Amino acid sequence: RVLPGRRAPVLAAVALLGLRGTMIYSVRVETYLPALACLALATELAAATPPRRFLLVPVLALAILYHQSNVLFVAPLAILLLVDRPRGVAGAAGALAAAAVLVLGPYLLAAAAADHPGGFWGFALGYARAPVEVWGNVGYLSPGGLALLGASQLRAIMPVPATAATGAGAFMVLAVAGLAAWHVRQLRRGAEHRRLRLYGLVFLAVYLAFFLWWMPGDPDFFVATLLPLWLLGLILIADLRDRWRRPAAALGLVALLLAGNVGLTLWPMHRDCGPGRRQALALDRAAPADSDIVAGSAVQEVMLYFTGLTRVLEAEPVTRQPVGALA
Asked: In the chain, which ranges are E strands?
């Protein structure tokens, strides 16, 4: 427990659920929110004393199956399982090995059923070798890439107008750097919550470094990093609680966050589901029943899901930068 009492943890949980990324994916069928839930639960299980490894194994495997990038979570998870727990090496290794089996098993079965020409690795990672310039580009390792990353992370928290993206992104990068510097300083001073601080810092470093290279302009990937930012923010508040006792102000900030994200994100989404939905429904009304429809990926997905039509083909390859649902 980082925050004392009963009200503060509840308010902290409401704040996490009120972030823009968690709000959007609470009403969309996607993998990002269930993956985040698995990461949060895995954190709780690994941080327990003693670690609840039996339950941790399937939760970790599920997080990776929801999104492959969560294999990166092994690094911060190792911090929780091993730091200040010198006798936990064997148990941690066993838990990670068991989770690997649970992940590889479905992949092997699916690859065999699909009879993929590239075999297992082609089935599992073939997309990563596709000629898509915006995936895994070293050109992102630059101030411009950092600004994209910062804007994407901030968009997972709150709305950011396109005209303010560069400045907001730079501000977010500085804010994250400042948060990290505070916790490094506290670690050097021997402050409490050592393991959780290290966990949050490693989580942020590994995920942000990977997605800076992979695709910093897609905010969807930065839903996972809401968890360490939230946790490190709570520990920062705990560090300052003797100097800053303003429960009413904290309640007001969370209420403002909720109201802003509902009013500026969820309500507009409710009123207008976007051009893809409009085009799909118009095509559904206009096209003859026996026609083959060729449409862009956004329109194709809507038609397959909402209209029941199955003869809908995708017209465009994935060669442009996806902006993601959070942009």
From this structure: 293-295, 312-314
